[in-house]
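Our preliminary data section would be incomplete without showing what the modeling component actually yields. Below, a chain of 227 amino acids is followed by its predicted structure, encoded as tokens that our downstream tools consume directly.
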Amino acid sequence: MTTADAETGRPRITRVACRPSGSRYLVFAPDDASPWYRDLLASPQATLEIDGVPHAARAVPLEGDERGFVLHLLEVDAARGRAIADQLLVHHGELRKTLAAARAELDGGPVADRSGLRRELLGHCVTFCNDLRMHHLREDGAFTAIRKAHPGLAPALERLRREHETVSRALLDLDALLQGRGDLGAVREKFERVAAGLEEHFAYEEANLLPALRGSGVPAAPVTPSG
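Predicted structure:
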């Protein structure tokens, strides 16, 4: 199970014992100090991997004296699809703003005069990487439910999952450049490649998922936005 760390927002992956209960799962915490238990009290969204398949889940505290949660797996109907589409655009907008803030640091003045540039960029990168990792982990879980509701989206969803892995590796490379003492020109070049790849990823996702989630149809074949 993956939860968002209640203090840092970073993804926390924990192996937990779940008990099926109809279409739901029950998970019990040994004590109040269990990190994942505190995470779910702060934010009830989780990604539950069952037999290698990720599922988006919403955690509801158990009633009575039992310490744990009922995990409701995501199901996509018309109303939920529209809500997912709206939230997707909100998340993409937030991530684009963080990218813009990092680019502003790069464009803020001559590199030679900006001794704090690397530190500032690293701060933006850490924030962005944590947010993006959490976004993609939750998407991977949601994709399972979206594919069940919209089988025609299967090719696009598989491509998006592969791109999540590519983006993760590219961000690790960028982080390594920022942590080191290499040329900041190389940092800018890598940053622009990452930013361009992410924008292409966001645009492809929006072009292929939003029509189906909003009930306006599924493309006959995956759409690759031009431009």
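The chain has five helices and seven strands. The domain at 2-73 is CATH 2.30.110.10 (Pnp Oxidase; Chain A). Preliminary results of this kind motivate Aim 1 of the renewal.
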